[in-house]
């Protein structure tokens, strides 16, 4: 039995066979000018083309799927994946303005799920630095790209800062932060955030139409004004497999991440392993 079939992916000094398939698929996409949605060769065809075992092909496809290069649909085949969107949740401003595709803005539809007033949890009280029992607005929305729900968002804002919110404007898709700036002069200067990869809650599953085992990226944060006044304690939930998350420092240019930056970030040793 070969080392590969026994479960040992490589013999020291030899090429990783699944990497041969990985590189082959990348080469096919590039040389044939394949576009998102184009169908790739089957597992059996890749096995013959790369002269490796089915195990190696499956391992390569797992890696390509994980890296966002391909999409596999049971019973249909393997296809070139749609480029992942780049979200910059750490950047000040409206959420949709931070999401790009090849550094171009992406068209989304914003759908208001709920606008209501109520009493905040202790976590929101602490985040917003308000007194217990002080009422807040809860604004729940989803962002759709085409017919697909891709981001779910909740914003918690104190009524003491924002006595009224125009529900019709939110239903029409207006940016919440634009409305706050226009009516109350509240402008986000910076935010503090926590990122968490997790399984979706019931609310997230309902809003994004997810299966329980689907991974999501959850961003919880607080937005502040120039005067260091917290005005929004929010949560954004993304379909994790559809996004790259980008945080930058003082420089404005984006150098590292791009939606076409596919492939392994590993290092091959000089021995070829």
Describe the structure in your own words.
A hairpin with a 2-residue loop joins β4 and β5. The protein has a 6-stranded antiparallel sheet with strand order 6-7-8-11-10-9. A 4-stranded mixed sheet has the order 5-4-3-12, with no helix packed on it. A two-stranded antiparallel sheet has the order 1-2. α1 crosses α3 and α2 crosses α3. It folds into 2 domains: 17-80, Arc Repressor Mutant, subunit A; 85-245, Chorismate lyase-like (Chorismate lyase). The chain has 7 helices and 12 strands. Mean pLDDT is 81; it is low at 1-13. By secondary structure, the protein is an alpha+beta fold. It is elongated.
Write the layout of secondary structure elements.
Blueprint: H1 17-31, H2 43-50, H3 54-66, E1 70-73, E2 77-80, E3 85-87, E4 99-101, E5 104-105, E6 109-118, H4 122-128, E7 136-145, E8 148-158, H5 167-171, H6 176-184, E9 190-198, H7 202-208, E10 216-224, E11 230-239, E12 243-245
Parallel strand pairs: 3-12
Antiparallel strand pairs: 1-2, 3-4, 4-5, 6-7, 7-8, 8-11, 9-10, 10-11
